[in-house]
Amino acid sequence: MSKSTSNVRSSIISTMVSARHFSFVILDSGPNSIPNCLLTLNARRNAGTLIDSKKTHQDIVLYLINSHFESHATCKSAVSNSKTRNIKSYGKILCDLLFGLDDLIDQNAKIACCPIGVSSKSPILNKAFATCKKEDILVIAPSGNKGNGTVLSPGIHPDVLCVGAVDQYRQVANFSGRIHNENGKCIKPEIAALGVDVEIPLDNGEIRKVNGTSFSCAIVAGVAAALFEANPEATANDVKMALIESCTPAEGSRYGTIDPEKAMENIRTKVPYHRQPEPIELPDHPKPFIDYRLKSQCNRARKGNRDVEGLVVGTSTDELIKRLESEAGEYLIEYHPFKNFDMAHVKAKPEFYDRLFEQPDLEVCSAVDINYFDM
Fold this sequence. Notes:
The chain contains nine helices and 17 strands. The protein is an alpha/beta fold.
């Protein structure tokens, strides 16, 4: 079977941060990739020329990351070694996100900023984020804009640093997603940053104000990049703990609102951290987890003799797929194992999935996309 190539498009700029190479990856949704996504910070001194009135969610996220990196970086001539990976708004969003995460591990990335949110709670992402943590990558994502009682994926995952939104008075935004435990304590998001009336300078001299946890997430990502730049020996956990310990307690987040200056002091004086944030326990999924959407797609495909794409995790995914290939190979069209995760992207006839669903070593079988209304 041929090796998979992701549908995610990319723009890459190789630069240096204080003599230490690291990648900064932004995984975002949108119809188009952005060429030359992150210019050198020196070229962006005049921030007012960066954004025009037609710029997209991606452009604003990139602006906020850069501006907050530059505001707090100790080396003002530094630039971030950066890459954007465009996650298509329609199509294989889960597949695109996983291939983007898989690839960034090979890029020596230290930060993955994921300013997206979906309601789908598929456990297919759990293994990917656990691997990112093992590989010392700090994944940052928003809590979402659906208000109290809901935190969206990927921010909901225990290994992701989730960011909520507050206003200029450090009051939680009504739209900021947040969930509490049975004792009423907020457990997600962990931290918060400005996400109400965030000012974006336009090229016509006007100021555009935007709201959303995506922009809070971007601000935190920019500060995190500055922390890595200030202490090149810091780990992802060091940066996470420096941010957490900088927080002023605030309603709507577990630890409170970040203080970038205090976080910078922490990264210089308290590293290495020998502790981690208290683990978060979220409801587990049944095993095997078989996505109802994938089952529905198989039923529809059976009537039209069509192929179905899915994402598969097994106790040993490669052994599982190869065993089924020997038993029902005529129904397997394509099989693309991920490089760094024990999972695979499969394209097959419904008859293949019928057999797959019955295997005792199957852990997760998910659709490659989400419903539009889950966005």
